[in-house]
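A further point concerns the way the authors explain their paired sequence and structure data. An entry of this sort, consisting of the sequence and the corresponding backbone structure tokens, reads as follows:
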Amino acid sequence: MDIFEQILIIFLLALGTLPLLWWRWRQRLKYLQKMAKLNILKRQQKSVLSQVFISYIIDACVQKLYITRHTQARNALAQLVGGRINASVRILQQQDEILAALLSAHQDAVKALRKMAKMPQKKLKNSRWFIFVIIAAQNVWALRQANHWFAALNKVPKSKTENAYYNLSKARHYMQKGDMAVVSKAITQALPVFHQQQYFMEETACYMLLIDVYRVSGVEDMSTFLLASIQKIYQHHNLPLQHTEITAMKGMLLTSDCQYAQAEICYQDALKLAPNMKIRADVLNQYALLEIHQQKYTAARKKIKQALNFYNQKQNSMGIAFSLQLMGQISFECGNLTAAAKYSQEAAVNYYTLENFSAYAESLYLAAEAYFQQQKFNRAENLLQEILSTLFAHQSNFHLGHVYGLLGLIYKQYGDYTQAKIWLKKSLWLEQNTQRYAGAAIDCLNLALIEQTTDNQAEAQQYSAEALEYAQKTENEEFIKIIKNKMLH
């Protein structure tokens, strides 16, 4: 065998082993990426700071450090795989400032995004990581800051995975605006990509948005199915924080479906699972909501005060707002209307600051109801007009039919029957178009009473008959009986 044959054999052997070496290199990289993601998640559960989780960012950082040969990068990679990001941020800062900032968002998103907000716009737009500026916006402050970038994102060239993140971001954006059609379409485009990439946190984020869509649409069965799927994912990866949140969410779903015994089991399990006080406080508030449904007001108030004490210490505005809203609801149910108005208005102020306009409207509407029942009609009207002016400027999921209906009753009390009918008819139109038959029945009944008062008997009888027709569409026997008793005869 001459020298050329020996070289050829060596070359062929080397060529044959290259795919195996490449496969082993890729398998090791994937393993390191998987461990980094899991360990970062587990470390995040011990913190109450604002954090994000973006699998693609973590994968990119691991890969960049993996192919860097110097010792500092290797040490940083070892720490990153263990869930500690600081050393990697320092190393990557020298190579890619935006990537480093986005990795740091896994420890403190608000700090990272404020830093990115100060970067030159040109620098961000020329970077393929610009897409993640909005993706990282998984908290209220960041979303507010990132909204002015949103339109520009559509023009940025994106890979398949980047486009999936864009669609997830888009779904979050339009969920706040209440446009469920856009949310559903965006999630449908993002979900298969995340599933293929095995980005289970992003996949569950898509499921969570779909649950909101199904819940708003009244499709409870699908919501329950998706919650069970998410629970299995979190159990499999041993993530108690996410497992706690999804268990509590299941409790809320069961509460809305009046399955109180099963809901209580969920909340008790969630309290046992809760990895920190912030999550425990969130669960206590949700547990209190179940007890409000069961009219266990003393027990509910006790849980809310525990949660509120923690939120006040940590200056957690969202937690404070929800606690105050629940206290307002308890006060209203117990007949303490002055306290109900006070708590609800305080909650509304907090929600407005957070730009949560749906919750703001719900809280202010409860305060208006409290004033209405105290016959403080001017105060009630002022709050309702405030809701209308705010929601005309900011989209939300709040159903304006409630406001129109209560304004109709206020003007009925004023004796201005013409204006009362205008508001009630606006409410009725909305109830009809959204198939809220109970609300439509109540509006028709109130219109019938006004027509009877103004001696329009034919119209009164017609509205009275329509009230019964809408009530029967609810298939709620108790509600049908109430409407029958209040009908004109």
Summary: The radius of gyration is 28 Å. DSSP finds 27 helices and no strands in the chain.
